[in-house]
């Protein structure tokens, strides 16, 4: 009997310990819930209760309803107002007048990873948490990617556009259907490759290879969005993320056998670009500020020979990451805007005819330069509307002030150490700024200088300041030159293409149409100018 009682005692004690542990855990959980909802520094901001308790609120939409969270944000702001708590430690803002307070590039305001890391892993041009770190990494690259350098290499862009001109010439007057958006993607990728490394990928002559590459990129964006929602995007070495993208997209691989081939091709191509750049660099002297902007060498070589270059710029991982960012950011976003603008021009013949008339006048004294084309009022309006309606980056831009509270307006303060964010959608589609925001209306940009300046205050598709997209000037030149050269020369019509094919409603960090890629198909009715 005594033995049985002795054996029973540990079991009873274990049961009691487990019971006490469960009670303490539940008490802790209840305490955390009460704290998050009523005593947390962000508790005064409205929003879904579940979002205040866990970041899984966003993860649910990112994984179960992929790419729809920006639309969820619209509904939340319609219900709760301009300031909504969308996570335990994050406030999303819809008031456009708060933009400058959040994105003023103060040294106090950093990017952040949702997992709480202040300095994302991986280095390179993209993802530097602090303004100072970003400046260090970008400084060698700024002159060779500057407006001055792009102007000096304008012929490079025109030569690539000429390849598309030849394709359109061959299709002129026939019943051939051309996916102009595919050519725009090939154009922007070949341009950024030539500009950066002195050699293109020959995608304009090999659309099959181009489509393999873009299938890989789309797989990357899809999974990168999901990794970011889990706070892992900057904690995983970039190429592991790519492999996981492919593994998790193996269903797509079966449907598209070229996916893995495209991945391998692209990886090897980028490695070759980086290797060739380093080998060429060995025979070049250190540069100066003047020579860095000379435009005589490919941009990456100009950057690497800069006197501002430090050892961190020469690591293979950093170079590879930088090349990867420049290729993707310098191609997909610009091509998407090109496709959107092309669709809206062809869907609005009266606007197209007016644009053609203005371009005919611009060509009266000979082919105008990019800077001349920027002075064509309606063309500028077309470019700005294409960028606005396309959105570009659809993901919100989180910032965190580690040093002090951030005053957004007279009544709203974000405590230090907590995340604040905005999204392009709440600027570009705001009816108070852009009346009838879903309408393609280039004339909104051709009004008085004061009105245009007011609109430009809220129009930052490439960000601004030290965080501005590195390839901003290249993108601008491509948009002006491609629209002018192609739409001045040809009368085209849309074929089997609707607005649903171009409206970007899916968030994969970049914005994508419902089908997963932009498609603008055209027939070339005739040539109207040489």
TrEMBL record:
Question: Which residue windows are transmembrane per the record?
Answer: 17-39
For the ligand (heme), the binding residues are 469
Keyword Iron part of the UniProt annotation: yes
**Cofactor names:** heme
Report the GO molecular function annotations. Answer: heme binding; iron ion binding; monooxygenase activity; oxidoreductase activity, acting on paired donors, with incorporation or reduction of molecular oxygen
Question: Which Pfam families does the annotation name?
Answer: p450
Note whether Heme occurs among the keywords. yes
PANTHER family assigned: CYTOCHROME P450 (PTHR24305), P450, PUTATIVE (EUROFUNG)-RELATED (PTHR24305:SF152)
Family statement: Belongs to the cytochrome P450 family.
Q: What protein name does the entry list?
A: Trichodiene oxygenase
- Highest classification ranks of the organism: Eukaryota, Fungi, Dikarya, Ascomycota, Pezizomycotina
């Amino acid at each position: 009997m005594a033995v049985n009682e002795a054996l029973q005692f540990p079991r009873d004690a274990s049961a009691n310990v487990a019971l006490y542990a469960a009670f303490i855990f539940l008490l802790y959980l209840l305490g955390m819930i009460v704290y998050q909802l009523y005593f947390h520094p962000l508790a005064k901001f409205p929003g879904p209760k579940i979002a205040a308790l866990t970041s899984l609120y966003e993860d649910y939409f990112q994984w179960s309803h992929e790419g729809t969270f920006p639309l969820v944000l619209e509904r939340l702001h319609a219900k709760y107002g301009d300031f909504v708590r969308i996570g335990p430690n994050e406030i999303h803002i819809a008031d456009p007048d708060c933009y400058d307070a959040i994105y003023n590039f103060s040294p106090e305001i950093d990017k952040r990873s949702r997992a709480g890391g202040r300095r994302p892993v991986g280095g390179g041009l993209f993802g530097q948490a602090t303004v100072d770190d970003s400046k260090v990494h970008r400084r060698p690259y700024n002159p060779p990617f500057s407006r001055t350098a792009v102007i000096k290499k304008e012929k490079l862009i025109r030569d690539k556009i000429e390849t598309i001109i030849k394709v359109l010439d061959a299709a002129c007057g026939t019943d051939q259907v051309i996916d102009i958006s595919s050519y725009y993607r090939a154009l922007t990728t070949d341009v950024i490759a030539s500009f950066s490394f002195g050699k293109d990928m020959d995608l304009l002559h090999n659309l099959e290879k181009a489509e393999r590459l873009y299938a890989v990129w789309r797989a990357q964006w899809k999974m990168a969005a999901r990794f970011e929602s889990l706070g892992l995007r900057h904690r995983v070495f970039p190429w592991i993320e790519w492999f996981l993208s492919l593994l998790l997209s193996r269903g797509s691989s079966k449907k598209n056998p070229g996916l893995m081939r495209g991945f391998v091709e692209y990886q090897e191509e980028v490695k070759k670009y980086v290797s060739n750049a380093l080998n060429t660099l060995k025979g070049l002297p250190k540069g100066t500020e003047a020579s860095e902007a000379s435009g005589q060498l490919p941009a990456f070589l100009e950057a690497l020979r800069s006197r501002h270059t430090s050892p961190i710029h020469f690591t293979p991982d950093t170079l590879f990451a930088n090349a990867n960012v420049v290729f993707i950011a310098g191609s997909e976003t610009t091509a998407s805007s090109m496709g959107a603008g092309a669709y809206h021009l062809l869907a609005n013949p009266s606007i197209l005819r007016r644009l053609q008339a203005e371009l005919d006048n611009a060509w009266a004294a000979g082919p105008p330069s990019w800077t001349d084309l920027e002075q064509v009022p309606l063309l500028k309006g077309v470019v700005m509307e294409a960028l606005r309606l396309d959105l570009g980056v659809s993901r919100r831009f989180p910032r965190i002030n580690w040093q002090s509270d951030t005053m957004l307006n007279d009544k709203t303060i974000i405590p230090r150490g907590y995340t604040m964010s905005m999204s392009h959608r709440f600027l570009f589609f705001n009816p108070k700024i852009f009346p009838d925001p879903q309408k393609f209306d280039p004339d909104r940009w051709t009004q008085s200088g004061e009105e245009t300046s007011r609109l430009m205050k809220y129009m930052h598709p490439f960000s601004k300041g030290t965080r501005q997209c590195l390839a901003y000037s290249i993108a601008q030149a491509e948009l002006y030159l491609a629209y002018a050269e192609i739409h001045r020369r040809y009368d085209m019509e849309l074929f089997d293409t609707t607005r649903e094919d171009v409206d970007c409603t899916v968030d994969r960090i970049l914005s994508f149409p419902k089908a997963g890629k932009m498609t603008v198909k055209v027939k070339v009715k005739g040539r109207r100018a040489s």
